[in-house]
Amino acid sequence: FQDDGRYNREAPLTLQREAAHYFGYVYFRQVKDSSMRRGYFQKSLVLVSRLPYVNLFQSLLQLIAPEYFDKLEPCLEAVCNEIDQWPPPVPGQTLNLPVMGVVIQVRIPSRVDKPGSSPVKQCNQENLLPAPLVLPSVHELDLFRCFQPVLIHIQMLWELMLLGEPMVVMAPSPTVSSEMVLALTSCLAPLRYCCDFRPYFTIHDSEFKEYTTRTQAPPNIVVGVTNPFFIKTLQHWPHILRVGELRMSGELPKQVKVKKLAKLKTLDTKPGIYTSYKTFLHKDKTLIKRLLKGIQRKRPSEVQSALLRRHLLELTQSFIIPLEHYMASLMPLQRAITPWKNPPQIRPFCQEDFMRSLEHAGPQLTCLLKGDWLGLYR
């Protein structure tokens, strides 16, 4: 907690500490037990942090939770003692984190890393015994596995996220719901998704009333749910993504269809995207073909995810570069800044000027995708 400022200055935007929310990472266990009223023993171990290190903290729970359910409190006490000795996360550094006889090795990404490149390999001279458990990333999901059933709509999902549209993800389990919501909010990288998102939302949540009321428009938020009850109460939301179980990345997925919202029958909702949104940009058919061919050729999921991530990164950059160009043109020149005069003013943002600048410096310079870019900017 001491030095948030320094960490946030050096970390990528998407990995900054959350000021307003905590992330809860959960390991849930359910075991048949006839002596219990519900016929099951159910318990969760939850790790709470302000850091969005999904991969690191889920891997940590996979190690701790089974032991904890076995040995209870003393186990947690020992683990907490070990975690207390861990070095703080410093962007750009590779950390060795000992816990329960294992050393987790992970590199904390830094703001100066080039987006889309693989992390720099650091050679640590220390003799690590036992051999460390190396995590390829602190936070990245298997993006390809998450988006597999909606590959052909990746364009639409990216646009909906960019526009901060309200969206419900209905999934068969909390794991699938969380992964899908996190995958959606990460598809704008290196930009940070600035609206609210709830990877797993339940009817016990304090905002339940606010999100299900029909008297006002839904807030700009991505919500993941599993309870079929939500099919009825969230019918008025403009975009609903219904997903089935996420399969391993090796099978040819059945692509879900886009359906009109009116077709949302209360309980027999098939997987699909229920929306009346029309995309501004055309689909990238070559990317989809490459990914589908990759499935047939059993290309590793990491490679497929990297292709997908690169495509989304290029889209976001193509969208943002013209804005950056225009913003830079509004800035005062260096020579106008002198200690003897009043500070120069930044010229105001004028939408029509910006639109005109797109004719010669628009996304068509960096992106092959055709479509109504102007409509998307508007």
TrEMBL record:
A Pfam entry, by short name: DENN
Every UDENN domain range: 1-378
Keywords, in A-Z order: Guanine-nucleotide releasing factor
Cellular component GO terms held in the UniProt record: recycling endosome
Superkingdom of source: Eukaryota
GO molecular function: guanyl-nucleotide exchange factor activity
Family: Belongs to the DENND6 family.
Record's protein name: DEN6B protein
The organism of origin for this protein: Sylvietta virens
